Amino acid sequence: MRTIKIKSGITISYQDKGKKSAPVIIMIMGLGAQLTVWPEELYYGLVENGFRVIRFDNRDTGLSSQLDQFGDPSLLKIWLSKRLPITSSIAYTLDDMATDVIELMAALSIKKAHLVGASMGGMIAQIIAAKHKKKVLSLTSIMSSSGKPKMSLSELKLFLQLAKHRPKSPCRDGAINYNIKLNQLIGSPAYPQDEQTLRKQAILGVERAYNPRGFNRQLAAIAASDCRQYLMAKIKAPTLVIHGNLDPVIPVSAGKLTAVQIRKAKLRIVNGMGHDFPPALMVKMTKWISKHVKKAEQKRAQKKLKKAISG
Question: In what order do the strands lie in the sheet with 136-142?
């Protein structure tokens, strides 16, 4: 792992593999999830397919800067401030997290990249693709949404189940057990992972870094950020939307809507997939993303050739 300080002063922990001359894929992870949540099979599979692949810890996650000076936000106040004349303070928004990616690219001297975002990471990638068009060669949005989060009955039930298992005070064992339960509840029904595997993953994650306050600040950033639906029409990069039909966190309807809103977006609905990365699907997912990125690279090369001939 490497670290680099970006323009804002935030330190980003990242991993950079593949030939420096190869097309760049930047992978943006979701809420409270470290870069290690990207499966090794997917990450190194993309490297083996000829790409330079960068994955990193978002601010307030993993080994990147922890912004504890901002304290613990009140989600209730943020929710009320969107509906009533009440002010609430937040540490940052998804736009700020999108700026982190742009500044990371600048720090690594990367002018253009293919973005792959999962869940909250998909939201961040959408913002970048809409507001920084010239820097984005393609977009892959996985288990994400273009709208503001809404609480359905099934999602409320999931939230209450998770709340029961959330540790009352920060401790290693409590964090590990909570992580296991979380992944059991949001995982893919058709591709369940055994508890021993989930425990191993949880231990690795908690021992690498554990910051529940950072999770809360990221959640506040999602709650406070504007709906992105008006931005979707501005996305010009070739887009692939991947979503599980059994996702209990962000329903498949959100993925379908995102694909409709982005011009010429391709939609791949995965039967039996929830809100995780089932090992059994990683070979396929690697193939889908690789094909999408290579197609975008071919179109880019054709445009360059046409420009050279006409010029």
Answer: 2-5, 11-17, 52-56, 24-28, 113-118, 136-142, 239-244, 266-270
Total-model pTM: 0.92
Residue 187 burial class via C-beta count within 10 angstroms: exposed 0-12, middle 13-18, buried 19 and up:
buried
Domain count, the chain: 1
Is 167 contained in some domain?
no
Q: Considering the domain boundaries, does residue 204 fall inside one?
A: no
Query: Looking at residue 10, which CATH number applies to its domain?
Result: 3.40.50.1820
Residue 6 to residue 278: CA distance in whole angstroms: 33
Nearest Cα to Cα of residue 261 among 241, 239, 232: 232
Cβ contacts of residue 49 below 8 Å, gap of 6+? 286, 290
Report if residue 159 sits inside a domain. Answer: no
Domain residues for the domain of 103 are 2-150+214-310
Backbone angles phi, psi at 84, to 5 degrees: -130, 160
pLDDT 10s digits, 124-152: 999 999 999 999 999 999 999 998 766 56
pLDDT in tens, 155-197: 667 666 766 667 777 788 999 999 999 999 999 999 999 999 9
Which tokens belong to 304? 């360059």
In a domain, residue 118? The reply is yes
Region for residue 184 given its phi and psi (left: phi exceeds 0; alpha: psi -120 to 50; beta: otherwise):
alpha
